[in-house]
Amino acid sequence: MTNIDNTDAKKVDQHHSNWMNVHGAHAKEKFSYTLTNNAMLKSEMNLVDKKILAKSILAWQQKPYVVCKGAAICISVFDSQKAEISENDAAKIILYDYIESLISKIDFDIIACRTVTVAYTVAYLSYLVSNSDKSLDFNQILENPSVLNQLDPIVTVISKDIHKFISTPKEGYEYLGQWHKHEECWNEVLALPVNLAIPDSLLC
């Protein structure tokens, strides 16, 4: 992977900062009061679109290829896990939304595959966190989503490298979109050179 380009980061900084200020305030108002009340949290999270919840969690579980298979399969896989909803899941939705917003402002050489890029970028961030032997501080994200601004330059670099990779036709697959739905695609993304790390201030 290439090193962080400050010019690329600055191109999206102003618009994304404005988005984060608005979204951060909304997220805090929507979720923060539930942190000390699990019943209220579950009630609030049950109002979230199942597709949004499923893709946010599965992408963080490093299964972007499942997210790319469409809403029905994504929800089915998510439901099969029968996991309890937690405040971390609310933070994962905020994280996914943040990355989706940032990536939508980046100028890619090839316009297609942005949705796929989001899922794979979230998964790659999760991979970087797992390599740190620490955890992402979801409580901090939930209480103050604006801390995600620290990821702007990293997400910009990662998403560009991933977008370039997944936009390249793959031998053996008639359609590019089919390639993204296979774990082999994710494994090859993981094989890309890594020289980035999540800021310690976002880890716990």
Would you give an account of this structure?
With 204 residues, this protein is mainly alpha-helical. The protein has one domain. It is 63% helix and 0% strand. It is built from 11 helices and no strands. Helix 3 (50-60) crosses helix 5 (71-81). The longest helix has 26 residues, at 6-31. The radius of gyration is 17 Å and the shape is globular. The two termini are 25 Å apart.
Q: Topology of this protein?
A:
Blueprint: H1 6-31, H2 38-45, H3 50-60, H4 64-67, H5 71-81, H6 87-103, H7 114-131, H8 138-143, H9 152-166, H10 176-179, H11 183-190
Helix pairs in contact: 1-6, 1-9, 3-5, 3-6, 3-7, 6-7, 7-9
